[in-house]
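== Folding task for one protein ==

=== Format: two labelled lines per protein ===

==== Paired sequence and structure tokens ====
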Amino acid sequence: MTDSAEARGPSLNEGAPAILRPVLDAIDRLGRLDGWIAGGCLILLTMLMITEVVVSAVANSVYWLRAKGVAWLPADMPASVPNAWEYSSYLMAASFTFGAAMTLRAGGHIRVTLLLARLSPGRRRLFEIVAALAGLLMSGFLAYSMVMFSWGSYVRGATSINSDTPVWIPQALITFGITLLALQFVARFLQAVCGLPLEDPRLRVASVAE
């Protein structure tokens, strides 16, 4: 799929003040990059789980054949991929956080629209401003907390018990995803203030199959 400006069509931030439009467009581009990284994490997670299943099945077959007297088969066949469950948890957390910003821009997060549907356009805009500000405050606090948490792990040299992986690495990935979500809330707040479209329907899937 082409991600060029021509393929996406005109920017939805054209009505923004000249000083804000480059900022809003840059955040939109970061949000799309966020989504691609989330997709990559899901692909890696799927491949890791498939490999784990295949290795486990092969190991069980080898042990069964050795029990039947096939002595030339390896006796130390690994029964699983080392640390597969640990790294799958890292990839799952990263995919959730990396996909959050693009999902917000696409309007994919769960929302209760019963109240919004009954508001006038002016009041709805005010409601969206307040909601975006609330989301910014919460995601900003979470991003700040994760930055301090990751930095603390780096300074202490904390590692995983199972694999000795420096835990600041997966923590930093999650922190980056949450930070991009906070930036997307900044953009949503500014777009609501300026009366711009808050969601980009071009980022949504065209069908359930996608």
